Predict the structure.
Amino acid sequence: MSDHLYLTDLHFMACHGVLDAEQAHPQRFSVDVALALDLDPAGRTDRLAESVDYRWVWSVARDVMLGPPRQLLEALAHDLAARLLVPPVREVRVLVKKLDPPLADVGGFLGAEVTRHA
């Protein structure tokens, strides 16, 4: 499948992590989502009903990220991908990034990426 919809750099303040402090104090997270689906019908008709509403994807990401605290980024990515893998989506790729990880000398982010297929 070569057609994709993307939502990138969705930012959230949330309490996820293994350490007690991570579960008690909000931290910065970013989420990237790629959805694989046939975009030809939407391209031909210019109708949202033939595609996936970006607002729905964002609301699912918000619900997962602001939901109950999770210890692992892997669990957040898995849950988000499972919720987004509904028709007409054939494949979903989710990258969850912790932007300020509690590790010395990490100048970037820590992340977990999952890909799921229908």
Remarks:
- The CA atoms of residues 91 and 110 lie 23 Å apart.
- The chain has one domain: 4-117.
- The mean pLDDT is 95.
